[in-house]
Amino acid sequence: MSVSLARISCHEVRLAPPRICRRAVLNIRHNSNTPVSEAEQQNLTWPEYLEIRKSKRKWETAATIPACILGLVGGLAYFGSLESDATKPIMGIDPLFFYGGCTVSCMGLGYLIGPTIGAAGWRMTHRRAMNLIEAKDRRFHQHIVKNRVDPTAQSATNPCRISMVREKIGSLHQYRQWLRDQARFRRKARFAEE
After folding, report:
1. What is the pLDDT of residues 73-112, one digit of tens each?
2. DSSP letter string over 89-154?
3. Report field, pTM of the whole predicted structure over 0.70
């Protein structure tokens, strides 16, 4: 049974333990002799979807750390082996500082590439359910866009928190809290104008 995010209350949904959510990506009953309909196989509930998103973020973070370390080590190996003359600046900068900056830039490049590598690895392990996850992702984005407040109505006394909200929502409780925050901002913005 799929739960609509628009009509959810605190008592309607109970989150299943993570081990159940990981196994229930396609809601297939493996130990049952009863046939499973195509509609049941193609159903991904909101708690399962949010648990899947959380696992994707963990994969991205787990890939970012080694990518940063590899970028730093690669930069140290390459720029540390270059011979430089301290009397000849590179683009007006001392060679030691320039090569140090390039080494840190290699680490930053690893930081930027790491989440992409993690997401690609995660997608390879979840190939069977990607259509379901992408459809639910589009639907989740539509819910966020529909319920998001207008940031042009913010002021110094009434700031709104909108940045990166899709990445921060990891459970139905956080989604409900975000909806309450959006409603509170709308009320404050509307009553401040009147």
Report:
1. 999 999 989 888 878 888 888 888 999 999 999 999 999 9
2. -BTTB-HHHHHHHHHHHHHHHHHHHHHHHHHHHHHHHTGGGHHHHHHHHHHHHHHHHHH---GGG-
3. no
